Amino acid sequence: MNVLVVNCGSSSLKYQLINSETEKVLAKGLCERIGIDGRLVYQKSGLDKEISELDMPTHKQAIQFVLDALVNDKTGAIKELSEIDAVGHRVVHGGEKFSSSTLLTPEVLKAIEECNDLAPLHNPANLIGINACKELMPNTPMVGVFDTAFHQTMPEKAYLYGLPYKYYEKYKVRRYGFHGTSHSFVSKRTAEFLGLDINNSKIIVAHLGNGASVSAVLNGKSVDTSMGLTPLEGLVMGTRSGDIDPAIMEFIAKKENLSIEGVMNVLNKDSGIHGISGKSSDFRDIRAGAAEGDKRCQAAMDVFSYKVAKYIGSYVAAMNGVDAIAFTAGIGENVGKLRKSIMSYFDYLGVKMNDEVNLATMAEEALISTEDSKVKVCVIPTNEELAICRETVALVK
Ligand code: ADP
């Protein structure tokens, strides 16, 4: 079965065509600057990337270009569109309505729309992508895979905030968590990789990318995670502050004469390692800056890793122990020095790192603790597109 995986943002759209039997990517790419001018990046497996400037006033037009590229005589990955058996869409927020992936029926689309309030930047864009695909491929089954779904197993004590209960009742203000597709994929793979029985396991996943979150996965189910109502809570991220004293918002608003929107903009776009370093949100720049002796880059790295360590420590408590800790995503998969610094807080748990393997491991599965370490530590590359493909196949078959 060939599955087209679509991740649609407000002005961009990432896609992969995956053969579900071989799990090989047949073609992938993205559309950028939709509604502005338009650029299509297309790459058939084994060939070079093609970049074309194309007029993309709408998402429908962008998807049409993707479909044209996929069936192109010379570099297409398939002969005709009927070879796309299903489309899997990433949907950011499923609220409390969706605890698993689902076929996108008109009722489901309405329910997703009702979650728009909770993710005003993401869900409307996801819906635009879904509707555009439906128009262009009306007979192809479509599946929605939610970033929040995996965390719907969290107990009430983990998802309720210390706020008036009426806000939960009236507006569903609670912790939802994100990156669920990645936390689910990586925790399952960690159990397989280490030969653990997932139904009798305590795994902590540190998804450290530009957006970053940690989750506690007990017996295969998410029991806590660091992101909250929105992806702003939790770790210090590329440009997001993560947890702060909420009173800082009023304090900064008054001092800087900012509106709520202005403060939110600072917390989402000007904070995190970008804000602390004053240099960049890209971890590679921060690492290079720290290596050259830039104190604020060093501070950004230290704050980042300390916060990850504190979350991991709190999830050891939440699960009353831990069997394995898995690092994933751009930073988690590639920066051995950072993994070492995070794990240095866990000598007390009996963690023994294999420094040589840890420092040499980049973007590949590896056990980076010693074989006899009481808690196993590993790198497990995430693959959200493959996870969406698998979920889609499971529902369409
Ligand atoms: P997202 O999907 O949230 O945009 P990614 O998982 O792609 O994020 O991670 C992006 C982050 O990973 C960036 O901060 C980038 O600098 C960092 N990163 C990616 N590759 C490397 C690498 N080889 N070395 C250091 N940092 C890396």
Automatic annotation (TrEMBL):
<dbReference type="GO" id="GO:0005737">
    <property type="term" value="C:cytoplasm"/>
</dbReference>
<dbReference type="GO" id="GO:0008776">
    <property type="term" value="F:acetate kinase activity"/>
</dbReference>
<dbReference type="InterPro" id="IPR000890">
    <property type="entry name" value="Aliphatic_acid_kin_short-chain"/>
</dbReference>
<feature type="binding site">
    <location>
        <begin position="330"/>
        <end position="334"/>
    </location>
    <ligand>
        <name>ATP</name>
    </ligand>
</feature>
<feature type="binding site">
    <location>
        <position position="384"/>
    </location>
    <ligand>
        <name>Mg(2+)</name>
    </ligand>
</feature>
<keyword id="KW-0418">Kinase</keyword>
<feature type="binding site">
    <location>
        <position position="14"/>
    </location>
    <ligand>
        <name>ATP</name>
    </ligand>
</feature>
<keyword id="KW-0808">Transferase</keyword>
<comment type="similarity">
    <text>Belongs to the acetokinase family.</text>
</comment>
<comment type="function">
    <text>Catalyzes the formation of acetyl phosphate from acetate and ATP. Can also catalyze the reverse reaction.</text>
</comment>
<keyword id="KW-0479">Metal-binding</keyword>
<dbReference type="InterPro" id="IPR043129">
    <property type="entry name" value="ATPase_NBD"/>
</dbReference>
<dbReference type="GO" id="GO:0006085">
    <property type="term" value="P:acetyl-CoA biosynthetic process"/>
</dbReference>
<feature type="binding site">
    <location>
        <position position="90"/>
    </location>
    <ligand>
        <name>substrate</name>
    </ligand>
</feature>
<dbReference type="GO" id="GO:0000287">
    <property type="term" value="F:magnesium ion binding"/>
</dbReference>
<keyword id="KW-0547">Nucleotide-binding</keyword>
<dbReference type="GO" id="GO:0005524">
    <property type="term" value="F:ATP binding"/>
</dbReference>
<dbReference type="InterPro" id="IPR004372">
    <property type="entry name" value="Ac/propionate_kinase"/>
</dbReference>
<protein>
    <recommendedName>
        <fullName>Acetate kinase</fullName>
        <ecNumber>2.7.2.1</ecNumber>
    </recommendedName>
</protein>
<comment type="subunit">
    <text>Homodimer.</text>
</comment>
<feature type="site" description="Transition state stabilizer">
    <location>
        <position position="240"/>
    </location>
</feature>
<feature type="binding site">
    <location>
        <position position="7"/>
    </location>
    <ligand>
        <name>Mg(2+)</name>
    </ligand>
</feature>
<keyword id="KW-0067">ATP-binding</keyword>
<feature type="binding site">
    <location>
        <begin position="207"/>
        <end position="211"/>
    </location>
    <ligand>
        <name>ATP</name>
    </ligand>
</feature>
<dbReference type="Pfam" id="PF00871">
    <property type="entry name" value="Acetate_kinase"/>
</dbReference>
<comment type="pathway">
    <text>Metabolic intermediate biosynthesis; acetyl-CoA biosynthesis; acetyl-CoA from acetate: step 1/2.</text>
</comment>
<feature type="active site" description="Proton donor/acceptor">
    <location>
        <position position="147"/>
    </location>
</feature>
<dbReference type="InterPro" id="IPR023865">
    <property type="entry name" value="Aliphatic_acid_kinase_CS"/>
</dbReference>
<feature type="binding site">
    <location>
        <begin position="282"/>
        <end position="284"/>
    </location>
    <ligand>
        <name>ATP</name>
    </ligand>
</feature>
<dbReference type="GO" id="GO:0006083">
    <property type="term" value="P:acetate metabolic process"/>
</dbReference>
<feature type="site" description="Transition state stabilizer">
    <location>
        <position position="179"/>
    </location>
</feature>
<keyword id="KW-0963">Cytoplasm</keyword>
<keyword id="KW-0460">Magnesium</keyword>
